[in-house]
Amino acid sequence: MKYLLLALLVLAVCSGQSCLQPFDRLAVNDHLREVCAGYVDSDTWIETGLSLMDQARLEGATEPEVLSGLSVNCASDVPEWTQACWACNTAMADQVYGH
Question: What predicted TM-score, i.e. pTM, was given to this entire model?
Answer without folding.
Answer: 0.74
